[in-house]
Design goal:
alpha+beta; 5-stranded antiparallel sheet; 12 helices; 16 strands; binds aspartyl-adenosine-5'-monophosphate
């Protein structure tokens, strides 16, 4: 192997031992009689000390050729040193150049010079060499593990549903058409229809973490054309409160998991994760509207982005960064949401807002075939296009509900980042199809 130790596997008490380390040349310092290479590997930084009189001609010659971000493997002896940050340095016997980096670099890696978002995304492989950027993706990984742990502890089965489908669930405007052999298909906007169909199967508590596609031309810091949707669906609910209980616990437990296991990365990012106060307030839409109107806003039949922000402020003053908004006007909500017969015109739809932004939406579903068909017609949808889905409601469909949550929004907001693109390796938006 070109490496025997990562930087964090070496310590001052290994003084005198021979090791081979490998990584990128982060910095080159030449003081004449003594030169240094700061090598960066996945775990951190290692100082390579090159005193002219104590190393071979080969080592000196190689040092002269090195450029920043070149890839090298260095074999040498561990030397305890009070002057080195880590308490040790490596005196090299051999430096092997594995790949020389071209100069100049397309962007600065040290984090000292801030690069534009576009430059960073065009050169994502280099951007990811920055500690802070890497920290974001190490934390993102922990969010995924946290969610999975929580859902599995609660007996949910992880599923994968098709991403190429014949019909969309979230409205025609944001569908991406795909040429599918000799017919047209679409990239799925959400696993909605599939997770619901499964409620009529033996898998009555499911979740999925997968891509969702929206042909949204909105050029904002919180929309992508391809995002990761975390969806769950559960059968045999009494009402939408069961769905909210699950979503609330999931968010709190996931945040706790990341806070506990992501300490080194949070330190690099200089961020802390705030655990939202429980129970999350459950505010009826009309009450939210009332709160906003007494604050001087005019609110329609739904909350605009600005309304959400304003409500976020009001709630933050009351000590809540996470809360539900329930009972939306049915007119504003998709066909699969159940209407509230006791309060005509309203529905059992819920949104979960987090730091004044919509994080998730869902609710109790319409599981009664005839009501579902009439709701579809009311929304000008042709039930014929949804036969594959409607069939599942004819032969034993239990009451059920669930939510879809924008995974990137969760990571972005929890880490207090300003742009959703920060938390996606290779984001897709209206302007970006490469890399
Ligand atoms: P909705 O359309 O509200 O609901 O989407 C659910 C959540 O997904 C996130 N989201 C997005 N994130 C980034 N970029 C986008 N373009 C984008 N669009 C949506 C948001 C949003 O709250 N089927 C329902 C869910 C359900 O009822 O279970 C649905 O998709 O955080």
């Amino acid at each position: 192997m070109l490496r025997t130790h990562y930087s964090n596997q070496i310590s001052p008490d290994m003084d005198g031992e021979t090791v081979t380390v490998a990584g990128w040349v982060y910095e080159l310092r030449d003081f004449g009689g003594v030169k240094f290479i700061i090598l960066r590997d996945r775990q951190g930084y290692i100082q390579i000390v090159i005193p002219r009189k104590r190393v071979s001609e080969d080592v000196l010659e190689t040092f002269g050729k090195l450029t920043k971000e070149s890839v090298v493997s260095v074999s040498g002896t561990v030397k305890k040193s009070d002057k080195a940050k880590a308490g040790f340095e490596i005196l090299p016997e051999k430096i092997e150049v594995l790949n020389l980096a071209e100069t100049p670099l397309p962007m600065d890696v040290s984090g000292k010079i801030e690069s534009e978002m576009d430059t960073r995304l065009d050169n994502r492989f280099i951007d990811l060499r920055q500690d802070k950027v890497r920290a974001i993706f190490m934390l993102r990984d922990l969010f995924l593990t946290g969610i999975r742990n929580f859902m599995k502890e609660n007996q949910f089965v992880e599923i994968n549903t098709p991403k190429i489908a014949a019909a969309g669930a979230e409205g025609g405007a944001s569908l991406f058409p795909v040429q599918y052999f000799d017919q047209w298909a679409f990239l799925t906007q959400s696993p909605q229809l599939y997770k619901q169909m499964l409620m009529a199967s033996s898998l009555d508590k499911v979740f999925e973490i997968g891509p969702a596609f929206r042909a949204e031309p909105s050029d904002t810091s919180r929309h992508l054309s391809e995002f990761t949707s975390f969806d769950f669906e559960m059968a045999y609910i009494s009402d939408y409160n069961d769905v909210m209980d699950l979503a609330e616990n999931m968010l709190v437990e996931t945040l706790k998991y990341v806070k506990k296991n992501g300490k080194p990365w949070l330190e690099i990012l200089e961020r802390d994760i705030e655990i939202p106060k429980t129970p999350f307030p459950r505010i009826k839409f009309e009450d939210a509207k009332g709160m906003l109107e007494s604050d001087g806003r005019r609110v329609g039949n739904d909350l605009s982005t600005e309304d959400e922000k304003a409500l976020g402020k009001i709630m933050a003053e009351k000590g809540h960064i996470a809360y539900f908004i329930t009972d939306y006007p049915e007119e504003e909500k998709p066909f699969y949401i159940m209407e509230n017969d006791e309060n005509p015109g309203y529905s059992f739809a819920i949104d979960l807002d987090y730091y004044g932004e919509e994080l998730a939406s869902g609710g109790q579903r319409e599981h009664r075939y005839n009501r579902l068909v009439s709701r579809m017609k009311k929304k000008n949808l042709d039930p014929k296009n949804f036969e594959f889905y409607l069939k599942a409601f004819k032969y034993g469909m239990p009451p059920h509900g669930g939510v879809g949550l924008g995974f990137e929004r969760m990571v972005m907001k929890a880490l207090n980042l300003k742009n959703i693109r920060e938390v996606v390796l290779f984001p897709r938006d209206q302007w970006r199809l490469v890399p």
